Design the sequence.
């Protein structure tokens, strides 16, 4: 069955430090890949997406993600975290041929001063 | 565009009552999704539509749940009868070419 795994339930980083959130997927082909962010009490906002082409994609708010086919991974990175980045981050896949979108369990990011 | 609009934002109801959640997708989007979010189970896909037609309802937990999309600008998710374990935040999302946009969600509390 198709699945999305985010192995870290929560991560704490210091403001100004770099960040990497992990995501692995299980699917027979390369799906469309996404990262979303959710602030408390809000809906999900798209940070970035990968459909094809360059495996390093840039998103909003200074985030980037790299698709690695050999590892079935799509990790999210940011070189310098700001306190306002504290939120929950979801990796998602949309299965080609139907665009059914499924989400990982999420990683909650805490930022300390 | 105002984005995906869900109503109500909050709903408190008694066990056994019927609950209807509403969603207005972004104009021009051809897919519509209903998700449920809980602490225990995370974001679960309940059902999704393509051009108003239900494509996959395998995530609908029980027959008490039903969803309709009578036209391209409106969808409902109904729970009848509601139970306390249905308490959750329900999100509607619409998409075009696989990029999904989410509404603010409806927080449902069944007491």
Sequence:
């Amino acid at each position: 069955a198709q699945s999305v795994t985010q192995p870290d339930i929560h991560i704490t980083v210091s403001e100004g430090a770099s960040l990497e959130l992990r995501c692995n997927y299980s699917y027979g082909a390369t799906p469309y890949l996404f990262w979303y962010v959710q602030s408390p009490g809000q809906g999900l906002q798209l940070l970035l997406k990968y459909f094809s082409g360059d495996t390093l994609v840039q998103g909003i708010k200074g985030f980037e993600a790299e698709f690695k086919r050999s590892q079935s991974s799509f990790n999210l990175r940011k070189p310098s975290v700001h306190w306002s980045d504290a939120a929950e981050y979801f990796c998602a896949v949309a299965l080609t041929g139907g665009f059914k979108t499924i989400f990982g369990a999420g990683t909650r990011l805490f930022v300390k001063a | 565009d105002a984005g995906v609009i869900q109503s109500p934002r909050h709903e408190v109801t008694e066990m056994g009552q019927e609950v209807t959640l509403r969603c207005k997708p972004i104009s021009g989007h051809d897919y519509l999704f209903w998700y449920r979010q809980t602490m225990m189970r995370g974001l679960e896909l309940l059902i999704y539509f393509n051009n108003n037609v239900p494509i996959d309802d395998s995530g609908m937990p029980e027959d008490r749940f039903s969803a309709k999309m009578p036209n391209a600008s409106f969808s409902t998710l109904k729970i009848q009868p509601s139970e306390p374990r249905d308490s959750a935040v329900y999100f509607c999302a619409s998409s075009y070419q696989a990029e999904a946009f989410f509404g603010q969600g409806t927080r449902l509390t069944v007491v």
User: Anything to note?
Assistant: Chain A is about 0% helix and 55% strand. Chain A has a mean pLDDT of 92. The radius of gyration of chain A is 13 Å.
